[in-house]
Design goal:
Elements (H helix, E strand, L loop, with lengths): L4 H22 L2 H6 L1 H18 L4 H6 L5 H13 L6 H25 L14
Helix pairs in contact: 1-3, 1-6, 3-5, 3-6
């Protein structure tokens, strides 16, 4: 599958939020449970992932049903509009389990498409 430069950039942004999620999870569940700011950070990661995933082309989203892009967008809507009723355990499970699974899929997709070269582009003089 050929991935457009815009989708490639968006997928790379998703990888960045995946790294943030991994950093948050590395602090541990007990820290998350007692730190409201860490809970809010997890919510923001979910919100940002969904906002970025929303920019992906239908071809990428539909072509890779194993990566939960649609769920990323749906969770973004829930976080953005229902923050007072969010279950911190659901957010933790998402950040600790679902996001890493999807990030692995995104990384594999970028590898198959040979997209890491886009971050190493050289600029040619006119």
């Amino acid at each position: 599958m050929i991935i457009s430069d815009q989708d490639r950039q968006t997928l790379t942004e998703i990888l960045g939020f995946g790294r943030e999620a991994a950093d948050l999870v590395s602090r541990g569940k007990s820290t998350y449970d007692t730190d409201v700011l860490l809970q809010r950070a997890a919510q923001m990661i979910c919100l940002n992932l969904g906002a970025v995933a929303k920019r992906l082309s239908a071809a990428v989203v539909e072509g890779h049903p194993d990566i939960r892009f649609t769920m990323m967008v749906a969770l973004r809507e829930k976080v953005a509009h229902g923050y007072r009723i969010l279950d911190t355990q659901v957010i933790w499970d998402t950040v600790a389990t679902a996001i890493p699974e999807d990030i692995a899929g995104v990384a594999a997709l970028l590898d198959r498409a040979g997209t890491h070269r886009s971050s190493r582009r050289t600029h040619r003089a006119p």
